[in-house]
Amino acid sequence: MYLESKNFIVRKLELEDREYIKALEETRPWAKGMLKFKDSLSGGDGFDYFEPLWAEYMNENYFWCIFRKDGQFCGDVQLDRNSETEYHFYIQLMDDAKIEGFGTELFEQLIEEIIKESGAKYLEFELWNSEDKARVIFEEAGYDMTDGNWEYSC
């Protein structure tokens, strides 16, 4: 999938995205805790949580990167399979990503393509936590994420 709007590009994860995804993962609260714990271990330098994640992401069919047209990496979109027809839909964003406008420009097109590629009948839009920056995208697109999720019937 490759989608383009006035200000954004969404495309399939590629090998060249490794450092972007690693930087994104390192901003997640769970990763910060793991890295802090690793640093407290003697010999912790040999521990690399990211490599298994990267290998898994490269094998995923439903993993896309979000970029601004000026080249700024904003984050990723992940679709996790729950069953043949049900998926969890996540958007992870970099802390400094300028994402305003994505929901009005590209969100519905993204959902249409995801449904076409995956065959999904139900998507559950989910936020990682109450401070999740993806809330802006969902709400710009008209979804009330007050409860942290929204069930979308395709």
Structure notes:
It is a single chain. It contains six helices and seven strands; from the N terminus they run ββαααβββααβαβ. The relative contact order is 0.17. A hairpin with a 4-residue loop joins strand 4 and strand 5. With 154 residues, the chain is α+β, with helices and mostly antiparallel strands. It starts with a strand and ends with a strand. It has one domain: Aminopeptidase (3-Layer(aba) Sandwich), CATH 3.40.630. It has a seven-stranded mixed beta sheet, sandwiched between helices.
User: What's the assembly state of these chains?
Assistant: single chain
Whole-number tally of structural domains: 1
**Number of DSSP-assigned strands:** 7
Q: Helical segment tally? A: 6
Q: What's the CATH superfamily, by name?
A: Gcn5-related N-acetyltransferase (GNAT)
Specify the structural class. alpha+beta
Helix content: 25-40%
Distance between the termini: 19 Å
CATH topology assignment: Aminopeptidase
Radius of gyration: 16 Å
CATH architecture: 3-Layer(aba) Sandwich
Q: Characterize the main sheet.
A: 7 strands, mixed
CATH class: Alpha Beta
* Strands ordered across the widest β-sheet: 1-2-3-4-5-6-7
User: What best-fitting shape do the alpha-carbon axes yield?
Assistant: globular
Contiguous runs where pLDDT drops below 50 for at least 5 residues: none
Fraction in beta strands? 25-35%
Q: What letter string, H or E per element, gives the SSE order?
A: EEHHHEEEHHEHE
Overall pLDDT confidence: 86
